[in-house]
DNA sequence: ACCAGCTCCTGCTTGC
DNA sequence: TGCAAGCAGGAGCTGG
């Protein structure tokens, strides 16, 4: 669910509560996430100091002082929220936990960070930091869309010869890492490219133009604190508000916002997932 | 290698 | 109103 802008927003929001702080206790209430959360992993987390918070694609990375990194994936419905202690009283002694609060990080300064995930598509894994890039979740990821490795030549080469619709190609994390359904739909509309068009049959000029458009789309979403449709919240519980500026996503039947277009946003299904687009101005 | 479809899970919305 | 089907932001796996 959360795509790159949402995960990055959460990362930034968690920093004050977690960076440089020690996890006094990692409490696991439900270990059966997408992958099991073993007791031994919770024990290794308890007492560890978090040196820095990073992100790779949609994965949140907690770099620990012990040479290990906790990989956190929010799946479709996961949240990481900070709850502060109030009036010197430890919050975890007073605040009732909510349904689907699966993992609680009790921080040494009294705040706690709660991982909540109704659908349990989210998961965590603790791995050696020096072998992080080889981890099976991260090894095959393509370049970061906001980084230097994602450039026009890369995208042209990645699309070459591919017979899959461009919508599917941009969702392929090996081509570019961090886009999901929302931002692919939005970027393709900005680019005026039909989501149905085969990736390998788009003029190179148009593929190249897609690169800065993807960056701008993600940048705009980041500025808005991400998109809150259902479950997503920032680390302090605030909503994102990029959903108010969606051009196509979840706007089926609404008029296209492009000047002089006059089209109507339509919803189609590609690879079993909704795609929103304007048939008039996306070709 | 590539690609479409299925799957995991819960909860909200929609339609009868 | 009640109930069941459909759908949801991810992504690994299977099989053609």
TrEMBL record:
Cofactor: Zn(2+)
SMART domains: Fapy_DNA_glyco, H2TH
Quaternary data: Monomer.
Swiss-Prot/TrEMBL keywords: DNA damage, DNA repair, DNA-binding, Glycosidase, Hydrolase, Lyase, Metal-binding, Multifunctional enzyme, Zinc, Zinc-finger
UniProt protein name: Formamidopyrimidine-DNA glycosylase
Every Formamidopyrimidine-DNA glycosylase catalytic domain range: 2-122
EC identifiers of the protein: 3.2.2.23, 4.2.99.18
Cofactor remark from the record: Binds 1 zinc ion per subunit.
Catalysed reaction, written as an equation: 2'-deoxyribonucleotide-(2'-deoxyribose 5'-phosphate)-2'-deoxyribonucleotide-DNA = a 3'-end 2'-deoxyribonucleotide-(2,3-dehydro-2,3-deoxyribose 5'-phosphate)-DNA + a 5'-end 5'-phospho-2'-deoxyribonucleoside-DNA + H(+); Hydrolysis of DNA containing ring-opened 7-methylguanine residues, releasing 2,6-diamino-4-hydroxy-5-(N-methyl)formamidopyrimidine
Active-site annotation: 2 (schiff-base intermediate with dna), 3 (proton donor), 58 (proton donor), 273 (proton donor)
GO biological process, one term: base-excision repair
């Amino acid at each position: 669910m959360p795509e790159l802008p949402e995960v990055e927003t959460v990362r930034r929001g968690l920093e004050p509560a977690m960076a440089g702080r020690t996890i006094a206790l990692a409490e696991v209430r439900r270990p059966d996430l997408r992958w099991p959360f073993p007791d031994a992993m919770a024990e290794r987390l308890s007492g560890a100091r978090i040196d820095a918070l990073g992100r790779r694609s949609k994965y949140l990375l907690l770099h620990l002082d012990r040479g290990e990194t906790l990989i956190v994936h929010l799946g479709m419905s996961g949240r990481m929220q900070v709850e502060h202690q109030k009036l010197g009283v430890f919050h975890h002694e007073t605040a009732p936990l909510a349904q689907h609060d699966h993992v609680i990080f009790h921080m040494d300064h009294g705040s706690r960070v709660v991982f909540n995930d109704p659908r349990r598509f989210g998961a965590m894994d603790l791995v050696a930091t020096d072998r992080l890039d080889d981890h099976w979740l991260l090894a095959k990821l393509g370049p970061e869309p906001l980084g230097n490795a994602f450039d026009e030549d890369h995208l042209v080469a990645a699309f070459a010869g591919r017979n899959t619709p461009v919508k599917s190609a941009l969702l392929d994390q090996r081509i570019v890492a961090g886009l999901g359904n929302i931002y692919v739909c939005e970027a393709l509309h900005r680019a005026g490219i039909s989501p149905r068009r085969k990736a390998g049959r788009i003029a190179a000029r148009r593929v190249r133009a897609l690169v800065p458009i993807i960056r701008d789309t993600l940048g705009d979403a980041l500025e808005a604190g991400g998109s809150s449709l259902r479950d997503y919240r920032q680390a302090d519980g605030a909503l994102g508000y990029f959903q108010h500026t969606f051009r196509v996503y979840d706007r089926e039947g609404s008029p296209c916002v492009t000047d002089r277009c006059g089209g109507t946003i339509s919803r189609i299904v590609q690879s079993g997932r909704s795609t929103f687009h304007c048939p008039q101005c996306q070709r």
